[in-house]
Write a structure and sequence with these properties.
By secondary structure, this protein is an alpha/beta fold. It folds into 2 domains: 74 residues, Arc Repressor Mutant, subunit A (Orthogonal Bundle); 181 residues, Glucose-6-phosphate isomerase like protein, domain 1 (Rossmann fold), CATH 3.40.50.10490. Helix content is 53%, strand content 9%. A 5-stranded parallel sheet has the order 2-1-3-4-5, with helices on both faces. Helix 9 links the parallel strand 1 and strand 2. The radius of gyration is 22 Å and the shape is globular.
Length: 287
């Protein structure tokens, strides 16, 4: 369990001052607590002894141990396939596929318990709102997941834009972003600095609602995001799994399409008419 998960689990048991500390740490996680205890005390407006009691209540022997755990989480977020290979557990090669499917099922079940329905519904409301433009971008691997979401959203509703991977081409898209719009970013370990810089700049200058899809160690984008979805990705191989990100995206696609089904149906019909380029219905069953 990460420090973030621990704080959230214990939040109801904390005093008002301790909850204030917890909220400050979570608001800029994990960077909010990677400072001296005196600096955190000044930032939260509580005493250093109160911070000591806070970290003790959530299960740490002291502030140094609390910070060591946060630093460990940061290191986990930078682990590459080469690092993960050292702890890989492939099991019996004759049953690897079945075992791998079992592991992905466990990750999906973990996601179901970790992502509250209320959070999903808040993100759904943003993405389904036709008055908002939706902009999407991901990292080296996760941009393919952003593309999956973008392609489906474009069939369902207008004003959907996937940013190109080349940062030189971003300004044209960024100038279109308004305060009421939505920017969805996908970023999993090892996190991309250019995406973090993009989020920081957009949050400051364009101020849309930023939705981050990441893992439990948290992309640095989290400090600039309004909504953060932390998904399980560990699967005991050299390669993290994106199965939970795909499931989250697919669930979002289903519910966005249902938000205004008559409008979705009309757009899909018009989309297919243009895509297939058919004069009648003879080609309807062809891909």
């Amino acid at each position: 369990m990460t420090v973030r998960e621990t704080i959230r689990r214990e939040m109801a048991q904390l005093t008002a001052s301790e909850r204030k500390i917890g909220n400050v740490v979570l608001a800029d996680y994990p960077f909010g607590a990677l400072q001296t205890i005196q600096e955190l005390a000044e930032r939260t407006g509580v005493s250093a002894p109160s911070i000591t009691r806070f970290v003790s209540k959530i299960g740490f022997a002291g502030y140094q141990e609390f910070q060591r755990q946060l630093i460990t989480e940061l290191r986990e977020g930078r682990r590459s396939p080469l690092d993960l290979k050292a702890t890989e557990r492939l099991g019996n090669r004759n049953t690897f596929l079945a075992d791998y499917v079992r592991r992905t099922g466990e990750r999906l079940a973990e996601m179901a318990g970790a992502v509250p329905q209320e959070q999903f519904d808040r993100i759904l409301a943003l993405v389904a709102d036709p008055a908002r433009s939706v902009f999407l971008l991901g990292g080296r691997i996760s941009d393919s997941i952003a593309a999956l979401l973008a392609v489906h959203l474009k069939q369902i509703r207008p004003k959907v834009h996937q940013l190109p991977p080349n940062p030189e081409h971003w300004p044209d898209h960024l100038l279109q972003i308004r305060k009421q719009d939505v920017l969805i970013l996908f970023d999993f370990r090892r996190y991309q600095q250019d995406l973090a810089k993009l989020a920081e700049m957009v949050a400051a200058k364009r101020q849309p609602s930023i939705v981050l899809i990441t893992d439990k160690w948290m992309s640095p984008i989290a400090r600039h995001s309004d909504h953060v979805v932390a998904l399980p990705i560990e699967i005991e191989t050299a390669w993290d799994t994106v199965i939970c990100a795909i499931a989250f995206v697919e669930a979002l696609i289903v519910k966005v399409s249902e938000a205004d089904w008559p409008a979705t149906k009309k757009r899909l019909e018009a989309w297919d008419e243009l895509r297939l380029g058919r004069p009648g219905r003879a080609m309807e069953d062809k891909p």
